[in-house]
Fold:
Amino acid sequence: MLELENVTSGYGTIEVLHNVSLSVSEKQIVSIIGNNGAGKTTLLRTISGLIPTRKGRVIFENNNITETEPHKIFNIGLVHVPEGRQLFGPLTTYENLLLGCYTHRKSLGKSGIKTRMEKVFTIFPILSQRISQVSSTLSGGEQQMLAIGRALMAQPKLLLLDEPSQGLAPLIVKEIGDVLRELNKQGISIMLVEQNVSIALDISHYAYLLNMGVVAAKGITKELGNDPRVKEIYLGEIKTRMGKVASPI
Structure:
């Protein structure tokens, strides 16, 4: 479904990703793990077109989307839920959800929009109780649910999630994890960026470990959890090419 072929990207003169290759198959949850500064958020921004690809190719459903504009990538079913939720704080829950299908509003009509919103409320019942509430006043967990719900309004084929567990209580994190499993069962493929390794490996089928902008390890999650490279990187014990111990990323 999604293929990255030797992708390099970054900001200004700074190169963050270096020849990254990875893939996500249909109906699969793939996790991208790594410490802060590993390049995880940059990876998602590159895939969704927010950051230009300097080298390599991004292929989605056999189409080269490397130079495609972000809104066009969104419209073909590749939907990004950014780190920090990025909700429109002054707008209500209802209004934020509407924005998720804004580009499809004419073809959907009122009945189509209502049907999609009802599906979101089935997944996150609490949002139906907060429908008129300003989103900035929601709890952290409710805001994360709203961010995912807004993405679901676009009926994504592939959902890109950046740190959905960040700052949430353990019970809410478990609930979000259960929702992601259910969405995957319904046919939505997911790429999950997570610093919380235990959560990421628990719900995903396959995982990639990013370290300093390169893929340091990859594999089936049950196997990758025992990979010594994963343990070394998370303990900050990876040595640089000069033989010095690298600081934790």
Remarks:
- The chain has a mean pLDDT of 89.
